[in-house]
Amino acid sequence: MEEKNKDKEKIKKMEERIEELENNWKRALADYKNLEKRTAEERESFINYANESLIRTLLPVLDNMELMVKHFEDEGLRMILQDLKKTLMNENVTEVEALGNEFNADCMDAIETVEGDEGIVIEVITKGYLLKNKLLRPARVKVGKGKQY
Fold it and tell me: Is 103 left (phi over 0), alpha (psi -120 to 50) or beta?
């Protein structure tokens, strides 16, 4: 009888141990799946924004080319500018739509208030750009402070 009790106790301990190991295995599996998911998200984020630094350095070049096109009527220069804009667009770089829109502090910097409709962007000094909806550079704008009578 005593031996039967010992066997039952051993079986109970083994069952507890199996349950413990099974729970540990499930936890480890869940941790691994979370790690895989997090790694995939980080990889995707890295791929999406890997060109961010390069694009930021190209923005002043784009600004200068736009100024040159405005001052010099050169068709070749205009074509190069279009190619650069198209390339940036292919990389999901978009311009912040500011002129005539309501001032948005999330993507615009107001550098001056001028006469005009209150809270509306009257002039864009420097264009702003987004990379896949992430702000690369805010638009620098003049904002209307209301009409003076």
Answer: beta
CATH code for the domain defined by 52-144 = 2.30.22.10
CA-to-CA separations, 109 to 1, 87, 115, in angstroms, rounded = 86, 26, 17
Q: Please name the residue ranges forming H helices in the chain.
A: 2-49, 52-71, 75-90
Evaluate if residue 23 carries a pLDDT over 90. Answer: yes
Say which amino acid occupies 124.
Answer: V
> Alpha-carbon distance 95 to 137, whole Å?
10
Structure tokens at 126: 């420097």
Confidence of residue 148 (pLDDT cuts 50, 70, 90): low
Collapsing DSSP states into helix, strand and coil, what is residue 21?
helix
Q: Where are the domains of the chain?
A: 1-50, 52-144
Q: φ and ψ at 16, to 5 degrees?
A: -60, -45
